[in-house]
Design brief:
The protein is mainly α. 65% of the residues lie in helices and 0% in strands. The termini are far apart.
Length: 118
């Protein structure tokens, strides 16, 4: 069975960090990841976020819930005692593939709660 280059590299990294204390190994991996990420950004030609990889969130990006008025109305009509996970399951059952995940539902509910407090 042929192993991929990524699998071979992972094995080398695991062997190199085996005998290190966990905190040292994690710090070494974090630094290696940072270096690799910076190299990838430079290779993509990203300079000050104007082209290539842009790591900044896009302002004004609307959530799945905000883009679907029917979904928004459905959430607002559901009982308030549902947990976020139950609400996400309910949406998945009703809207299928376009339904948001738990994190998106949570962010939406936080925004709604914040707008009610103002």
């Amino acid at each position: 069975m042929k192993t991929s280059p990524a699998a071979r590299a992972a094995e080398l990294i695991a062997k190199a960090t085996d005998r290190l204390p966990s905190s040292t190994a994690l710090e070494a991996l974090r630094r290696a990841f940072d270096r690799t990420l910076q190299r990838a950004i430079r290779a993509a030609g990203a300079t000050s976020g104007t082209r290539g990889i842009n790591l900044q969130p896009r302002a004004g990006m609307r959530s799945k819930i905000d883009r679907h008025p029917e979904m928004k109305a459905y959430i607002d009509d559901l009982p308030t005692y549902l947990t976020i996970a139950e609400l996400a399951r309910e949406l998945r059952g009703r809207f299928g593939e376009i339904a948001p995940g738990r994190s998106a539902v949570h962010r939406y509910l936080q925004r709604q709660a914040g707008s009610r407090d103002r």
